[in-house]
Amino acid sequence: MIDPELLKAVPIFQSLPDEELASLAAVMKEQTLPAHQRLFEVGEPGSTMYVVKRGLVQITIPSSGAHVELARFGPTEFFGELALLDTQPRSARATTLEETELYALSRESFLEFIKPRPLAALAMLAYTAKRLRTTTELVRTRASSNLNEEFHKRETFSDRISDKIAEFGGSWRFIFFYCGLVFLWMAVNTAQRFGIPPFDEPPYQGLNLVLGIIATLQAPFIMMSQNRDQARERLRAEADYRVNLKNEIGVEKTVAALDDLRREIAELKARLDELAVQGAPPR
């Protein structure tokens, strides 16, 4: 027997009166699953939303050959609500982490229940939008992390050397090294009283040659490092675009489902008004 009091603790149903909670409980089904049982998989047709009565459910999505955890749902929390708003395949995997009891609500039962109760639909859409934002941020961060890992795997020894040289050339260490080299060179070639013969007398043409070689070699290393950074940024921007596009499509589907729901509610109300005017009892 499904407990209406537990449904009252579910955020999207908190605004419903007790008699409507009882009606909702009557159309839901209860099921018990063992630990590590897969409830549904990515791409499977979905038509059921679940409320956790007891236990813990993990939601994951595939990414780079592995599954990234999006969320974990415990008692009084719900998931799979997108299946009630459209008929698209599942976008994530759901797996029980321990023995779990669930309340299942099918799309057909949900539509019949929600038609005269638009506030419950709006509350569900608000929670859905919040989850979409969280998922988008997680996938965006994960995509950036994966790009960095892929670049690191593809780097050659020469790439790493050029990056180190470019990093050194843009630091205070290089400035100190550069100034120290100049002063040391000048000091050695002017310290004749210590018995050290000068090898580059003023105006230090040898020093100018060495500094010119350093500057000439440093420029290509810096440009190679910058080119790789630009390629990395282009791929990261492309990954962000794909994530944002997927999110926009999900929002559009949600809005379209809400419009369909509102239209069905309006048609039902018009039908009830017509029957009331005709004096016939609504069926």
Summarize the structure.
It is built from eight helices and eight strands. The protein has 283 residues and is an alpha+beta fold.
- Structurally, how many domains make up the residues? 2
Gyration radius, in Å: 33 Å
**Number of helical regions:** 8
* Percent range of helical residues: 55-70%
Biggest sheet overview: 4 strands, antiparallel
Quaternary arrangement of the chains shown? Answer: single chain
Spans with pLDDT under 50 lasting ≥5 residues? none
Strand residue content: 15-25%
Provide the structure class.
alpha+beta
Between the first and last Cα atoms, what is the distance in angstroms? 27 Å
Side by side, the strands of the main sheet go 1-8-3-6
- On the 0 to 100 scale, the average pLDDT is 78
What sort of overall outline do the alpha carbons produce when their principal axes are compared? Answer: elongated
Order of helices and strands: HHEEEEEEHEEHHHHH
E-strand count:
8
Observed structural traits:
8 strands, elongated, four-stranded antiparallel β-sheet, Jelly Rolls, 283 residues, 8 helices, alpha+beta, 2 domains
Helices and strands, with pairings:
Layout lengths: L3 H5 L9 H10 L1 E5 L4 E3 L7 E7 L2 E7 L2 E8 L4 E2 L2 H4 L7 E4 L3 E7 H8 L3 H37 L2 H13 L2 H17 L16 H74 L5
Antiparallel strand pairs: 1-8, 2-7, 3-6, 3-8, 4-5, 4-7
